[in-house]
Design goal:
three-stranded antiparallel β-sheet, single chain, 4 domains
């Protein structure tokens, strides 16, 4: 007998329903007015189906379709016994809350609902566990996991607090604890302890306090650690105090910063180099005889008395160049002290030969002794002028020293010939002794 689509698929799995199925509601938990209408249709379909089955001669011993087992409302798959000749789509069955297709757990879409392993996924997981409900074991596990997570978070917070405390205490020793307070907010952030130091270096306060590090990096030098940076500042300050420099050179502000020190730090000036520069300026120029400063100004007009210290402390001026200029000034000062002329070219040449201040003082004392008599004799005998440069060449063994010595000998011989070897001997003998002494020392200058 032909069956209408409603008779064939009255329930979601096509089985004829029963009064019990109607009372339990629609399969898979549907509800509402639409469901009530569907239930009525199913009941009417069952009634007509039973009527046909009882009247049909080809069907004997037909039994009514049993109601779905209790709990089948979760799947609506019908019964596992079939519906006889009028059973509809009997490939779908259900056992409890699980749907089967041809005896195997059903996976796929049915009436707009996803099934996996026979369980509808809006109500159960793939293992049949009802969603939204947890067993006592699950609740215990969740509690343990939550406790473990809180413990880990607290341990991480303590680590961050410890990292902060270490940084704060370290900086506070130098009066810089306020710098670390800029990163205190990280205690509430999920950052690692090592991140504190990195974040601190990115703060504006830190970068201003250790500004020379930026210049060091640009120059290809490594950045100094805070301890190294502050340690060098303290050494600079102690050196300047020792040399009695004005406090304006080393007074620090509230953060311990001295702006004048930044150029030393940026140019990698060590404490020993700084002391060398100060000693060069103070001991060899400012606190020396005035002729040295006079010669320095004469030779190098760009350096004046007001900024000689600033010039020598400027790390962009090479220390070797500063020392060379000061040595030349000392040599020129030695000449000025003897009433002689100070020539920058000569002084620098002698400085290049390694002549020291003491050697220059002795040498120019000799030049001052022999120059007047040699110049006088040259005028008397009509010889080439005997100049300061001539005497300097012989005394300091400079270029032309042999010719200078020969000219001196010639003047001595002329005087001896004129006075029969006696007149003027005292003066010339004294000159000879002086010349000899200077010549003997020439190799030392």
């Amino acid at each position: 007998m032909a069956r209408s689509p409603k008779d064939e698929f009255g329930t979601p799995f096509g089985q004829a329903g029963s009064a019990a199925a109607t009372n339990l509601g629609t399969p898979f938990g549907q509800a509402g007015s639409a469901q009530a209408a569907q239930n009525a249709d199913i009941e009417e379909s069952d009634r007509r189906l039973r009527a046909r089955m009882s009247l049909s001669p080809s069907v004997t011993g037909a039994t009514s379709v049993p109601a779905a087992p209790e709990g089948a409302s979760g799947t609506g798959a019908g019964t596992g016994t079939g519906a006889g000749a009028g059973g509809g789509d009997t490939d779908f069955t259900s056992v409890g809350n699980r749907a089967f297709f041809k005896g195997a757990p059903f996976s796929g879409m049915r009436n707009g609902i996803q099934f996996i392993n026979g369980y509808r996924q809006d109500l159960y997981d793939e293992n049949g566990k009802e969603r939204g409900k947890k067993t006592g074991t699950d609740a215990t596990q969740d509690l343990l996991l939550a406790q473990q997570q809180r413990a880990q978070e607290e341990a991480a917070r303590r680590d961050r607090q410890s990292a902060y405390d270490i940084l704060y205490n370290e900086f506070n020793k130098y009066g810089l604890g306020s710098l670390v307070e800029d990163v205190k907010y990280l205690l509430q952030s999920n950052v690692s302890p090592s991140q504190f130091a990195l974040e601190l270096q990115n703060t504006k306060s830190y970068q201003q306090r250790f500004a020379a590090n930026q210049e060091r990096i640009k120059a290809g030098l490594r950045a100094l650690t805070p301890a190294e940076y502050i340690g060098l500042e303290d050494q600079y300050q102690n050196i300047m105090r020792t040399y009695g420099m004005p406090s304006t050179y080393y007074t620090k502000d509230g953060t311990g910063k001295q702006a004048g020190f930044e150029k030393f730090l940026a140019n990698d000036v060590s404490a020993s180099e700084l002391e060398d520069r100060i000693a060069t300026a103070q001991q060899r120029v400012l606190n020396s005889n005035p002729e040295v400063l006079q010669a320095l100004k004469q030779f190098y007009p760009d350096i004046n008395n007001a900024d000689i210290l600033a010039y020598t402390l400027d790390p962009t001026n090479a220390l070797t160049g500063i020392k060379r200029k000061v040595t030349a000034a000392e040599i020129g000062g030695a000449a000025l002290a003897q009433g002689l002329q100070a020539q920058g070219g000569t002084a620098e040449s002698l400085a290049g030969q390694g002549v020291t201040k003491a050697q220059a003082q002795q040498g120019y004392a000799n030049v001052a002794e022999i120059l007047p008599r040699g110049s006088q004799l040259a005028d008397i005998y009509g010889e080439q002028p005997y100049t300061q440069q001539t005497a300097e060449a012989e005394v300091f063994n400079m270029q032309g020293s042999a010719q200078a010595a020969a000219r001196r000998k010639k003047l001595k011989d002329l005087e001896q010939a004129t006075f029969g070897g006696s007149s003027g001997v005292g003066a010339l003998g004294r000159d000879k002794a002086i010349y000899g002494g200077a010549s003997g020392q020439a190799g030392l200058y």
